[in-house]
Amino acid sequence: MELQQQMRKGSTPVLILSLLAEGPMYGYQMARELERRSEGYFEMKEGLLYPALHQMERDGLLASEWRTVGAERRRKYYYITEQGHRLLADSVAEWQTFIEQLLRIVRGRQEPQPVSG
Which structural domains are found in the chain, ordered by start? Predict the structure, then answer.
C-alpha cells in the first residue's frame, strides 16, 4: 500500500495541472473530479490536496482568487499560470516516457524470450 501512496503523491502536481488546464476550479471540486475521472482510484484527501495547491501557488504554477458563489458563500478558485502550462507539457512527456520504459521492463520479465541457438 505504501508504494501506491507514493505513486499517487508523485503524480499529484500533474493531475492538478491537468484539471486546471481545462479551467479554474476550487479544491473540493478538483478532488471530486479526480475521483470521478479515475473511477475512485485517485481519492485526493485534504491533507494531500491543499498543501500541494499552496506549494504549487508559491512555485508560480497556479494562481488563485476568491469568488462569491450564491448569496454569501466564498470559494477559492485556482487556475493554471503560463509557467504551470509549461511544466504540465514537460511533465506529461516525462510521465509518458517513464510509463513506456517501466512497462517495457515489466513486460519483458513476464514474457518468455526466445532462446537463440
Answer: 2-110 (1.10.10.10)
